[in-house]
Specification:
binds tetrahydrodeoxyuridine; 4 helices; single chain; alpha+beta; 6 strands; globular; 161 residues
Length: 161
């Protein structure tokens, strides 16, 4: 028997003032698009803004549907738009935020399905994707790779015969 320990890490910023720079700009864009989310059922408005290696910013927000499973999370709307329109450019960073007051003052973190998609695109990009998690105000988390969100992940390697 062998026990393994996996360590993940993230950096916490107390507020916008501590974050600053390009990361803050990306988070502000995610905040703006979160307000345009179509979330009449959950009223949980999420925005995502990603920066490609060429500097282009692609955004997304959650799109709900009366047939609930037909909706889509904000992160995936943004990532798939980037994959569809800029397939040759790596994703450098993604900022994700929700309008709703954060839980216990902390930013919400992406659902499992979005973690899996973020992981796929980090592999596709062949470089770590930085992740900025925040609310409209307050504490912000910065992760330096999707690996910190999804340890023991499932990747295409498992499908190789
Ligand atoms: N949602 C996201 O957009 N991203 C996540 O990571 C978690 C959940 C959306 C889906 C749905 O529209 C609403 O939030 C409530 O689950």
């Amino acid at each position: 028997m062998k026990k393994h320990i996996i360590t993940t890490s993230y950096t916490e910023f107390a507020s916008d003032t501590e974050l600053a720079g390009a990361d803050l700009e990306l988070l502000k864009t995610a905040r703006t698009v979160a307000k345009c989310a179509y979330a009449p059922y959950s009223k949980f408005y999420v925005g995502a803004a990603l920066r490609l290696e060429n500097g282009i910013i692609v955004t997304g927000n959650n799109q709900e549907n009366a047939a609930y499973p037909s909706g889509m999370c904000a992160e995936r709307v943004a990532i798939f738009a980037a994959g569809a329109n800029y397939p040759d450019y790596a994703i450098d960073s993604i900022a994700i935020c929700c309008v709703t007051a954060s839980v216990n003052g902390k930013p919400f973190s992406p659902c499992g399905g979005c973690r899996q998609v973020l992981f796929e695109y980090e592999n596709r990009s062949k470089k770590p994707m930085r992740i900025i998690l925040g609310g409209m105000t307050g504490i912000i988390y910065l992760l330096s790779s999707v690996k910190d969100l999804l340890p023991l992940s499932f990747a295409g390697d498992f499908l190789k015969k």
